[in-house]
Each structure stands twice: as C-alpha cells, then as structure tokens.
Amino acid sequence: MKHFTRAGSALGAALAASLAVISPGALAAVSITTSHDGGNPARPIYTIDTDAGLVFKVRGYDNGVSTQSAGDISSLVYQGVQFQDQSRGSQLNSGADFLYKGVSAVAVKAELVDAEGVATPASIENGGVVRGEDYVKITLISDNLAGGVLTHYYLVKKGQPHIHMGTHFTAEPDTLNLVRYIVRVPIAALPNGGSAGTPGGLSADGYWPGDLRGSNGAIEASDVFGFAATDARHGQSRSKHYSNMRLKDWHYFGGTGNKVGLWMLRGNNEGNSGGPFYRSLLTQITASNNELTYIVNYGEAQTEPFRFNILNSYTLMFTDGAPPVVPDTGWFDKLDLVGYVAPQARGAVTVAGLEGRKPGIAYSVGFANTHAQYWADADGETGAFSSVGMLPGDYTMSIFKNELAVATRQVSVAANAEKSLGPITLADDPDDTPALWRIGSWDGTPAEFLNGDKLTTMHPSDVRMAPWVLPDYRIGQADPASGFAAYQWKDVNGAISIRFTLRRGQTRPLTLRIGTTTEMGGARPQVKVNGWTSAVPPATPKTTRNLTVGTYRGINRLYRYDIPARELLVGENVVTISPVSGTAGLRFLSPGIAYDALDLIATPQ
C-alpha cells in the first residue's frame, strides 16, 4: 500500500477531487455491470468490460431453451462490432442445463479478483457496477444427481481482449457424452476461415473444408454436405469434420474479418483423450455463422477412456487479424480455480536421444495415464526431446515413428523435478524385419496409399477422390500411391488382390503382415492365399463413424497370417484380402479398414 507524507496529502486530496468529476466509465479499469433482464432480479446478466476494446455479457439465468442457457456468452462486442449470434449463446455442449441428464438448475457467479487473490462479488443491484485493476472471474457450475460436477470459468485480465476459459468435470456429461465449447459468430463479422496450415485453414483449392455456404443438402447423416448438379462444385463434399488437424500440429484456430481475427488458442490439452494424433472437428462456416468449436473431449473415433478431474484451459482471443500470441497465464494462481496445478508443482522428462531412427521420418513421444496426456517432438538430428509441465504420476511413454509406436517405457514424474533418461533404442519397428515384398511404409498412417492425401478433408465419395476399386496389385510393377487403396470397405472395394512371384527355394513357411490404423463396424482383414483361407481374426470393438469424417486415427493393429509352405507356388501367387464383420452397412458406411502397410516375411521360428 502506498502512503503519502503530510506534504503529499494535499496533492492527494486535490487529485481525488479532480477524479471525482470524471465519469466512472472514463476510468481505466476492468468492470462487471449487473443488469436484471426485464427488471427481474432472478434474471441477472453480467457485462464484463476488459478495458481492451472487448465487452461481453454472460447470462446468469436459464432462458428456457438450450440455446440460451445460464453461463452462455450472450454478447461479444469488440471495437464496437457484435461477434455473438444474438439468437443463440456461445456455450458448453448445447447449453449448461443440458450437460447432465435431469439437470435444469445451473449456478453462475461473477466476481472481481485483485492481485492478492481477494474476491469482490458482482453487484446484486440492477445497474450495479464493480471495478478493479486486475481480474474478472465468472464461475459456472452444473451437477447431476449421481455426483458429477462440471465447473467452467471465464477469466479476464485487465487490458487484454481475451477470454480465458477453464473446464473441470468429475464425471463425463451424459447427455451428449462429450465436452466442447462452441463460439457462434455472425458470418458478417467473421466471414473467413483460418489461413492455410491451420485447422480448417484454406486448402490448396482455395476453399475452407468446413465451409458449407452454397451446399444444398446432406450426403451423409446430417453433417456432411454436397452441392447441386448446377453448381460447379457438384460432387465435392464439405463438413465441419474436415476442419480437423492432428492435435500435436495445431496451437490455434479461428477466422478473420475486417481488420480483425478471432482465435481459439488451446492449452496443453492434458485432459483430452486420444493422444497427439487425435483428430476432431474444430470449425464450421454456414450462411449465418462462423462456429469455433473447442473440443475438450469427443465421443467420435476415441482410442482411450475419457479423463476427469483436470482443469482444461483454452483462450478466446481477438487480434487485428494477425495470428494470436500465447498469453501469460501465471496469474491463474490468484483465482482459486478448481483443479489448477501451478508450474512449480509439475515435473518434466528429458531423453538424450533415439537410436535406430529411420532417416527423413519425424519421431515424437506421447505420455499417457488415466489422468493426463502429453507429447513432445524429437529433435530431427539427435532424437532428443523434453516434456515439461507434467502432472506428477506414472506414465506410459510411447515413441512414435510418425504415428506408429516403435518403443514404450514406463516413467515416473515428480513435482518440481526433471527425470533424465539416456538414449532409447527403437526395437519394435516392423521395417527392421527383412521382407520379400512390402507395400507402403510402417508409419501408422495410410498417407502413402491411393487417396491418402485427401482422407482428412473430404468424403470418400468426393469426385476429387480416385476410384476405390482397382486392378490387382502386382508386386514389382504397381505403386502404392496409385495402385493400392488407403481404405477398404466391405460394400465398396470388398476384395483386394495382390499378385507376387516366388522362385524355387522361397516356397517355405511365410507370414503375411497387415497393419491397420483403424476400422469401421468391427471390420478386420481375412486373407486367402491361392487355395488357402485364413481364420477370421478376433472381432475388434465397435467404433463410431471414422473413415467418412476425416480421420484414419484409431488403434494401430498388426495382423499376422502364417501361410503353410504347401500352399505357396513357384511362380505367381495371389493374396486376396477381404474385410469381415458381423455388422451390416452400405457403401462407405459398411465395415471397413484403413491400411498402414503390408508385407511378406519369413515365418519367425
């Protein structure tokens, strides 16, 4: 606290007198203004002025419809322009009252917090204002009858046009079985998507994959769209699902308008599920709205259970159109946030290098346990890497060659400590086994196969895709990029044949290996070699849509088929692969698989 001397007290009094004639709104401060909708004290709305050109409102009551729920952002004005759809809120899931089954009451609390962590509640009077020099904290709480509690925060630091958010839940919201935050912006205020190289960013063809403007109806479910026969884009597809990007490859997404950019910046994503290569929708542009969807966790194409009891942080940021810069969040420790863990209570893992790497391929590492997930990229020269800011605990550490795990270790992380490990030898790379022939590369993706470069940004029926039905693949003559399909469906290209030649002395017991990255409808490959048919592999767990919504990312599986020597011929042999499943489906929704690689090796002794 500052103290004036006796001589300075007169100056202080004069200053106070001069300030008294200045209107309160002219004072630089962060503020919360309470208003009663319709004059009803039971219907509060909190208006937050960030003192940075951003003024937004949070609804403190349920307006009777899920699109206008308690805890929604109902107004988002930046530099005098409204960036919030006034007919719908920006909100969690489909509204906080629709998070858990049987919940209709949601609590919303608004308060100022000073630099010492002392909180001052918002006024309860209509038109009442509280002002401060530091922070605003809005807390939304929704719970269910079984004890699950979701807490969501809107956090503001004075002088920044940012809305920091944090979402913590003790049980998965069970109406939609996911957690997301959707920002709904009028299209006139934000007509453009992001730049190339960002999620949902501009494609090489000059369009945004999630831009539905001009489309004329769904071609799959209610979320994949096509164009009329009279449109030059007829046969092409668009969907919010095609705005995805591998989690490890993006830090922000959003859009631009007239001298403005609106971005969603992710935190470390430690509370998500699916690991560093997980893909899910992020943006959607319609005739009325530009929607930004931050996924905390998502029910589609998941590879592991959801994580709870983590404070998932992310930030909605305004700029002049430039990409966002990561803001400081060290002040979060002043705000008494449920689940917040300060940097000094976290640990790190450092590895000196990776031995046995293949040249020209990117390697990364993932850490996972039931509570949290992290990842880091390995240095391109040495393979060394570090993962910092980790919650204490025991983790499975997986080393990935692109997206294929080629080594695993167990590591323990302690608070305020760094775990240092020596070089790790990569001993589980299928490429290290000599093969008579190999189709594709063992890297955990179908990118090198036919249509592999289009899988994440368009529907398999899109006219820009090459035909899925192909002639037999001839070893030594065909090329994977043009001769072997990245995906195979039971009702589309249900039989894929590979022709290869064996010389005398090669008709010994051989093993066909097939790698897949995911499957649809419980599909798994069954093979026929000449007159011999393999057993049907065990069924895989049923999954949601994946192959048609922009992701090949599931669980990498390696199938082995031991072929008896007596079934092999000197000369030409034919392998036929068919997906089998007890699940029905038509065309691109029939049981299917995504390929990683295939090879023929000597049967291990």
Mean pLDDT: 93
**The biggest beta sheet, please?**
8 strands, antiparallel
Total domains, how many?
3
Low-confidence stretches: 1-26
CATH class type of the largest domain? Mainly Beta
The assigned structural class equals: mainly beta
Q: What name does CATH use for the topology of the largest domain?
A: Beta-galactosidase, Chain A, domain 5
User: Architecture of the largest domain, according to CATH?
Assistant: Distorted Sandwich
The proportion of residues in beta strands is 35-45%
The portion of residues assigned to helices is under 10%
SS elements, strand count: 40
SS element count, helices: 2
Shape: globular
Radius of gyration: 28 Å
Can you give a write-up of this model?
- By secondary structure, this protein is mainly beta.
- The protein folds into three domains: 262 residues, Beta-galactosidase, Chain A, domain 5 (Distorted Sandwich); 83 residues, Immunoglobulin-like (Sandwich), CATH 2.60.40; 173 residues, Galactose-binding domain-like (Jelly Rolls), CATH 2.60.120.260.
- 3% of the residues lie in helices and 38% in strands.
- The protein contains two helices and 40 strands.
- It has an eight-stranded antiparallel β-sheet, with no helix packed on it. A six-stranded antiparallel β-sheet has the order 5-4-3-2-1-9, with no helix packed on it.
- The N terminus is likely disordered.
Key attributes of the depicted protein:
3 domains, mainly beta, six-stranded antiparallel beta sheet, 38% strand, 3% helix, disordered N terminus, globular, Beta-galactosidase, Chain A, domain 5, 2 helices, single chain, eight-stranded antiparallel beta sheet, 40 strands, Immunoglobulin-like, Jelly Rolls, 605 residues
